[in-house]
Design goal:
Layout: E1 9-15, H1 17-42, H2 52-83, E2 91-96, E3 101-106, E4 110-111, H3 112-137, H4 140-152, H5 154-163, E5 171-175, E6 180-185, E7 197-203, E8 217-219, H6 221-243
Parallel strand pairs: 2-8
Antiparallel strand pairs: 1-6, 1-7, 2-3, 4-5, 5-6
Helix pairs in contact: 1-4, 2-3, 2-4, 2-6, 3-4, 3-5
């Protein structure tokens, strides 16, 4: 039987989050090495103008900015989906800090090119490019944000490795909080093993992958609790810096 004549199989996969968190550590270390080499061989002194008294406030400020940087990462995913053909109303965003994730969810089936471009866009734009800019203008803030973004793109990068090996006919759709996804392909993936994902089930009825329309932005209860805690700690730190 020719491949074109094969039936389309539908699968639900789940990310192996333990593996992805391990790769996040690896991708955190990788950009630190060229950064160290850049400063070592150029002789430039890293621009860290803060004194010890300001360091606590700087750390709090950095993580607040990092939160916005992470949100920008997901926004770039969403824009890339839309530029490559996805409908705006099917793109939703969310944060589940208790799981350690921000996410952009594409609730419609897209092709291989779309998902690959979406996966790589934040890594390239606010990871690699901004890291190089950070070196050139000697901005440790931009360098650190870029390194954290590259680490946060670990899931995107391992999934790029997964998708690049799949047939060009595949169709992809995200489910739930985007740690689960659905694939339609003529390839038989039921017996294959992957490091980054595990097969959850072979779908026999498309009703199994239907979902109610999601809110445009979803913030879990755990995320609200965490954000309120960070806000209180930040305000206390700012007040102590001002009055002490």
């Amino acid at each position: 039987m020719k491949k074109d004549d094969k039936k389309i199989n539908t699968y639900i996969f789940k990310y192996r989050m333990g593996y992805i968190f391990l790769m996040a550590l690896v991708f955190f270390i990788i950009p630190i090495i060229p950064t160290w080499l850049y400063y070592k061989f150029t002789g430039i002194t890293p621009n860290i103008p803060l004194g010890e008294d300001e360091m606590d406030l700087a750390i709090v400020t950095f993580f607040i900015v990092l939160f916005g940087w992470s949100a920008l990462h997901e926004l770039i995913h969403g824009i890339a989906y839309q530029v490559n053909g996805a409908k705006r109303e099917n793109i939703t965003y969310g944060v589940a800090l208790e799981k350690g994730i921000f996410y952009c969810k594409c609730g419609e089936f897209v092709d291989k090119k779309n998902i690959i471009v979406s996966l790589l866009s934040p890594f390239v734009i606010i990871g690699v490019i901004t890291l190089i800019i950070g070196w050139l203008i000697n901005s440790m803030l931009l360098i650190c944000l870029s390194i954290f973004n590259i680490s946060g793109a670990a899931g995107d990068l391992v999934m790029f490795g997964f998708f690049i090996k799949q047939d060009k006919d595949l169709r992809f759709k995200e489910l739930g909080d985007s740690t689960t996804f659905c694939l339609k392909t003529k390839d038989d993936l039921s017996k294959k093993k992957f490091l980054s994902v595990k097969l959850d089930k072979v779908v026999t009825d498309d009703k199994e992958i239907e979902e109610e329309k999601s809110k445009k932005i979803t913030i879990t209860k755990g995320s609200w609790i965490f954000l309120i805690f960070v806000l209180i700690v930040s305000l206390i730190d700012i007040l102590l810096y001002i009055f002490l």
